[in-house]
From TrEMBL:
Listed InterPro entries: AB_hydrolase_1, AB_hydrolase_fold
Keyword Amino-acid biosynthesis carried by entry: no
UniProt protein name: Predicted hydrolase of the alpha/beta-hydrolase fold
Single Gene Ontology MF annotation: hydrolase activity
Domain of life of the source: Bacteria
The AB hydrolase-1 domain, residue ranges: 73-139
Keywords: Hydrolase
One Pfam entry name: Abhydrolase_1
Amino acid sequence: MRSPAHSQSTHSQLIDAPCGKLEVDALWQADSTGAANPNAASVERVAILCHPNPLQEGTMMNKVVTTMYRFARDQNMHVVRFNFRGVGQSTGEYGNVTGEIEDALTVLQWIHSQTEARKLWIGGFSFGGFVAAKLAQLVNEQSAFLGVDDFDITDLALIAPSIEKNDTSDLLLPTAQTFMIYGANDEVIAPSSLQQFGENFGIQTHIIDDTGHFFHGKLGELKQLLEALSSK
């Protein structure tokens, strides 16, 4: 159930990053006094969301990212979305994927410093889906070195991830925590490629009929699937 509007605070700001500055939009849920608080005792989960390709006008305000944002908000998670380098108020230039993975890690480290919530929900759409997958791999493989070793990934939501233009040969996923959703008529990433990716990695895969890459007319159904598939 969605919390009352007065019990949440959306805080957009610029944070320090290797690229200069990253624009971050953080929503903190409320504590027992009704005030927004990143350390609210009742909130154990925090979501980080990755947006589509910056070279194709992808931003954190993308409708699919916003659907994930609303889902996480309504599930009483803290929610953080951000613009990759060179997008919106974030400084720098496109980083050829590796730079954007660095951006996601930078934001995650910032989240770690802002809240005591340690159950981590990672989500990404299209290009952001691949970045989200690589972020999860970093958390699982190098968390102590990166200073985020007490995060527990509860969910990795890959929404029509960009797996044709990006190398997945060395990708390692937290299989039990990962699920993928895509449209049956995806016109950007071949549904057959997405199906094969899901089979190769042994992850839950769900297809939404009668829609394409951007889930036009199906965002409500997408949100319902997120609710059904995510850990409680």
